[in-house]
Every structure is written in structure tokens, then in C-alpha cells.
Amino acid sequence: MNLIGHGKVEIVERIKTISDFKELHRIEVKRQLAHEIVSIAYGFLSPLKGFMNYEEVDGVVENMRLPNGVLWPIPLVFDYSQNEKVKEGDTIGITYLGKPLAIMKVKEIFKYDKLKIAEKVYKTKDIKHPGVKRTLSYADAFLAGDVWLVREPQFNKPYSEFWLTPRMHRTVFEKKGWKRVVAFQTRNVPHTGHEYLMKFAWFAANENQKVDEPRTGILVNVVIGEKRVGDYIDEAILLTHDALSKYGYISPKVHLLSFTLWDMRYAGPREALLHAIIRSNLGCTHHVFGRDHAGVGNYYSPYEAHEIFDSINEEDLLIKPIFLRENYYCPRCGSIENEILCDHKDEKQEFSGSLIRSIILDEVKPTKMVMRPEVYDVLMKAAEQYGFGSPFVTEEYLEKRQSILG
Amino acid sequence: MNLIGHGKVEIVERIKTISDFKELHRIEVKRQLAHEIVSIAYGFLSPLKGFMNYEEVDGVVENMRLPNGVLWPIPLVFDYSQNEKVKEGDTIGITYLGKPLAIMKVKEIFKYDKLKIAEKVYKTKDIKHPGVKRTLSYADAFLAGDVWLVREPQFNKPYSEFWLTPRMHRTVFEKKGWKRVVAFQTRNVPHTGHEYLMKFAWFAANENQKVDEPRTGILVNVVIGEKRVGDYIDEAILLTHDALSKYGYISPKVHLLSFTLWDMRYAGPREALLHAIIRSNLGCTHHVFGRDHAGVGNYYSPYEAHEIFDSINEEDLLIKPIFLRENYYCPRCGSIENEILCDHKDEKQEFSGSLIRSIILDEVKPTKMVMRPEVYDVLMKAAEQYGFGSPFVTEEYLEKRQSILG
């Protein structure tokens, strides 16, 4: 058994076989924790090696810093039911969907004021905020400690085609000859507004590099995790971004598609920082931030995720943020523009998610200047194959969707 | 009389009135020299304070360096007919179109192998190369020495609307709040390929700056000087770029139009360096270089002007080059693209100067995805007003065009 995680500690040496694992006290975890364990073990969330203890949570909540001074915006906690017989110092086995997933060395068991987490991280106590709701619904105690996967995660299709560990990301970047990589965060099927956000960000990241061959790439890194009714289904998000490149709208020479297992917290500015850290762990040099990054409802102003970077020292982030305004279709220019460069504000046709949604629900193919025809076709196919007929998440999808991790 | 130039030397003190000027030995100069004197005096060609001596020409020709080590790619020489009675040490008066223009302190009178200049600067001895032809047609001796304007230049319309000294450029940049400015070199009426070259360069120059308000601008700096039959007329170049901004295709918030008096040498890579130096003197932080920059015929490969920057140390240039591929219209994308980002090479519709020219000659209005309708209209108006009916330079225009400097 090859453990996957950080550091070679004595525990890792001790748990050598599946029967060693079976002798441990075992806890079955929910999807969120299973996904986070995978992300921690592979280094998506580096320098975290496990779930946070009291001091770490407190530093993050109060100052966005780990006790060692490293910038970190959102607490990562392992909440557990106190019915479980676990004590500090234990090594426990973690199962997911009934199968061995990981081991954890429990260093600390603690409680923390969940309302305080909510207020500081989300800037609101409103239970209607999905991040607040998630936080308040945690169990009352938290386990802190490092984790190791006991097996490589198996992904179902189509996830398996796009799974790359942080190390694999770096290998692909090198193979493609990219010296710079700009990350694009998404949970959407791409309309042309997204496409040009990526294209414009490419120019920003490429800056003054030569263009005899592409030295800058775009990493489309989809956040895969908890869904809400009305979201695009995860399978469609991956397959449509793949189509955008496959059909040449963004050349494969400068395009790579992958995902990170992470349940969106909708923490707006703080989550923007977390996305920057994750993509820096993947080897990206730049990260684009558009309008309403990782926001929800009206809890954050449209460009609040840009503003938080004013308070961050450059040396605290190993990745450069690229700030862009929202794109729109300008009928005068005949192209995708934004209001910094184009002065036809009165004529602009904004991309309205709900308008595009209603067009798609009516099974009308949008114009190619809103959604590429191949993207639409792939979306509709994914709806049939994975969405129980719908490209959007329904109650049925939430109940019956195939699991991501096998 | 307020002399305009560099340094306060005793000569400047001595020539105080127009009658002082009239006591000097006077030389009438051709347009090229008059324009270069204006450019030198205002600092467009800083650190040059005058015309080069033997050692300077030799350093530039052989190593692209002035004797003090400063990067400089193209010799600036004052050729004169030896019939003129001038000797080293003289202070001479310079007239243009019969009116006092400048004074010059003659430090050195020298000869230099013109064929060697041609070969080194233009990489060819071919007399059909317009830069070679110009060099070989210089008189046989050169005057070296600093120059001072004896009056502010007066420009005829429409030039007067767009005249900015280097200092005035910096003042406008500051007023507009620009922290970065990307220069765009042009001698063309803008088609959409040019427009998007500027827009894409804006993203590159803006890189990771905030976009709450524009902190990056585009300086469209037209090279005004000698024309060849078939070129767009200078007046139309200025007025159409102005239209591009006035009609909102590039917002005035990020757009400024001006010109530099300079006779194109068509020196390809070496001239690209000179353009970078000039725009750095205007306060620009970036300079975009597309395909065939400052080239002519097939003397240079399409991206040779990019390659020369490989041999230049960053600290030798106070401006960052931005390299972009040629744009084309992609009917699949429905937009202006380039072959780094778009993979529809087989369908691309390149901007052909001669095709656009023939459409315009037939008085057919091009589609707005080739040329903006307002740009076309302004072009046609300029043809009537300044071009003797033609938007392109004709023999008639060469003979009768209004002078630029009044």
C-alpha cells in the first residue's frame, strides 16, 4: 500500500497493508471531506497537510494567516460526530462510500465558534448564504491532523479524462513549452464572454513574451463538488470546455482542461484568494479574476474579489492576479468587448446567465456570438447522458448523479 | 528669442534676437533635416542633442551603440553640399522654407562610407531599398553638432491638432491617470486588424493592473514624413485614427493620438529599436510590434523585428516590447483572431493591404469587420480635402501637398 500525502512519518511506515488499515478505528466521511482529503493529499491545498487545529482555524478566521505566517483565507475543518470514539493521538481509518480512502493522525480535537467563522469568512451571518449555511451545519467538534490517501482515487467518466494531480499539471505545462500559465476558474458552461475573458487574460499573462511559439497557456480548472439546483451539471462543464478547445476556438496549443475537487464556499474575495493559492500549487503563474468571482447573491460587490488583493503583499502570493472587467457583446464593434476598451456602453448586450439559461431550456440554439454551436451540441448531449435530460442540476440529478470518485 | 534644445551653452546665450540670427552664415535645409531638427530639439530622439559626428556614426553603424554605450540603431547625419562655406567651430543659422528654424554649433565636418552605412543598417546594398537609396543619395560630407530651434514649430491643419512634445505627452498621460502606456506605431489607416492589435496590446501592457479605472493607455503615434506613391496620405492617417476613438471603437479613456516627425527608413529590426527609443522618450512603458514592423519588400522576414530584441539587454531599453502575431478575421469565431489563440487557420481571412486598397479605390465601403464605417467615411472626406480626391498618395499629392510645418 503506497500512502499518498506529505512527509514520511512513523504512521506511514506502520500502515503497510489493507489489513493494517482494517485494524484502525474507522470513520465514514461525507463527500466534502473525501474530496478535501484527496485535494490535501495531492497538494492542491499545499502547504496544508491535513485538517486545521484550533490555532490554525483561529489565525485563518481572524487574520487570514496560518500560525507560521502563510496566507490562508478559508478554514479547512474535519467536523465529526462526538458519538465516534476518537481521541487525540489516535490514528484512524477513513472510508468513503464504504471503501478505504485515507488514514488520519488525530492531533487535536477541538471546538470553535461556528458563527464567528461565518461572520469573518463570509462577512455575513445570513443563513441563506450557502457558505454560512454549510458552516453552521457542521458538527460541533473538529478533528485536526494530517491525512494520507491509502489508494489512488478512481474517477468515473468523464472526470477520469481530465484528472491531473498538481505534479501532472506541471509536467504537462513543461511538455507544452509554457513558461507562464494563466488559470481560469469556472463552474460554468462557456459562453463567448468566458471565452474572451480567457483570451484577453492570455494576452495579459503573456505580456512581453515572444510569440514564435506559445510560451503562455490557459489552464481551465473546473471546481467540481457540491451542486445546487439550477447549476450546470459538472459533466457538461468539463465536456463543453473541452469542446471549446477541440473545435479550435481556443487552440489546444494554449489550452488545458482539468479540475479541482472542492465544494464552493461562495466566499467571494476570500475564496478568490484560495483559488489563487490552489492554482499556484498547480504551477500556474497567473490567475484571472472577472466580475462576481466566487460570489453569490448580493453579498459581495461585483469587483470585491479584485479589491482584496490590495491588502495582500505580492510576496505572499506566488501567482499574479489578472483583473478584467465583465465582457459584453457590442453590436457596433461586432465583437466581445468590455467597457474599458469599447465606448459603446449604451448599445452593449450583456451576457445574462438567466437569459442564456432560458434560451437553452427552450432548446433554442443561441447565436454563435453567444455560445459556440459545438459547445451547445455537446451541452445537449451531456444533458442526455448525465443530466437525466437536463443540462442544469435538478433534484433528480442531486439524488441520482453518478459519483465523481469511484 | 527662446531657443529650444538641450543644455545652456554660451552660443544659446549669444543668439538672443532674430538680428543675431541673421548675422550667422545660413543654410537652407530639406524637409528631412528640418523635421529631424524639430525632433531632436524637443527630445523625441534623446539623448541626441544634435547630428552625429564620425565616432558616433561609426559606433551606431558597427555596434548599434553611441560612444557612451547608449543603444542607438540608426545614424542621424546632416549631409551638406561642400559648396557651403562652413568650417568646424562655426555657429550657423538654419532656415526651412526660407524662414529661420534653428542654429547649429558645428563641431566636426566629416565623411563616412555611405555604402557601409547601407549594408550595416539595412542589411542590403540594393538601391531599390528606400533606406539604401536615401543613404546613397546623401551629399558627400556631414556636419556634426548640437542644434537649437529658434522658434516653436507651427503646424498646418490637421497636424496642429495632434502635435504633442515629449513633455506634453507625459503631462497628458498623467492627466489621464495612466501608469502604463503602450505605443502603437503606424503609417496606416486603421483596419480592424490594427484596432485589435492595439486592443490586445492593451491587455498585455495592463497585465495585472486593476481595472476599476484605466491605468493603461494606448498611444497611437503616427510617423509623419516622406511619402511614397500608394501610401495613405498623412492627413487621412491622423484623422481616421482619431475617428476610431471618437466613434468609440477604442474608448478615449485609453486612447491618445499624436505624431513624430520622422522619415521612415524601412530599416526593419533596427528601425523597430529606434521606434522603441522614441516612444520611451515620450513616456511610454510598452511598445507593440506586430508583423513586418518598419519593413519593406522582402528584405526582412515577417517577425525579424521581434528577433532583434533577443540581442538587447532589458536595461538598455526603458520600454518593454510586446510581440504579437498578425491578426486575421476568423469566420468561425466571428471575430479578429490570431493563430496563437485560434486554431481555425484553414478558414482565416487575412487582411490584405492591396485588397483593402482596391476595395477603397472602387469606392466600395468595406464590411465593418474589415474597416469601421466611420473610419471609411473620414478617409473619403480626407481624400477630398487633402488628397486631391485620392486617399492614397499620388504624384500630384507629392508635388502639391500642403507642408506639415508652417
TrEMBL record, chains A, B:
It is an enzyme of class 2 (transferase). Its EC number is 2.7.7.4. GO terms for biological process: sulfate assimilation. Residues 161-381 form the Sulphate adenylyltransferase catalytic domain. The keyword Nucleotide-binding applies. Residues 17-151 form the ATP-sulfurylase PUA-like domain. Gene3D superfamilies: HUPs (3.40.50.620), Sulfate adenylyltransferase (3.10.400.10). Pathway: Sulfur metabolism; hydrogen sulfide biosynthesis; sulfite from sulfate: step 1/3. Pfam families: ATP-sulfurylase, PUA_2. This is sulfate adenylyltransferase. It comes from Saccharolobus solfataricus (strain ATCC 35092 / DSM 1617 / JCM 11322 / P2). The lineage of its organism: Archaea, Thermoproteota, Thermoprotei, Sulfolobales, Sulfolobaceae.
